[in-house]
Amino acid sequence: MQNIYDVRQKGKLIFLLISVLLVGGVLYVSNDLVKDLSVEERKKMEIWAEATRELASDKTEMSMELILKVIQSNTSIPAILVDGNGEINQYVNLNLPEKDPEKYLQRKLAHLKGGSNVIEINLGDNEKQYLYYDDSILLKRLSFYPYVQLGVMVLFVLIVYFALISTKKAEQNKVWVGLSKETAHQLGTPISSLMAWMDLLEASGVDPALLSDMNKDVKRLSVIAERFSKIGSKPEMELVYINEVLENATEYMRRRVSSKVQIVTHLPADAEGAMVCLSLFEWVIENLCKNAVDAMNGEGRIDVYLTSEKQQLYIDIKDTGKGIARKNFKTVFNPGYTTKKRGWGLGLTLAKRIVEEYHDGRIFVKESEVGKGTTFRIELKRVV
Question: Where do the H-state alpha helices sit in the chain?
Answer without folding.
Answer: 4-56, 64-72, 101-113, 137-203, 208-230, 242-254, 278-295, 347-353
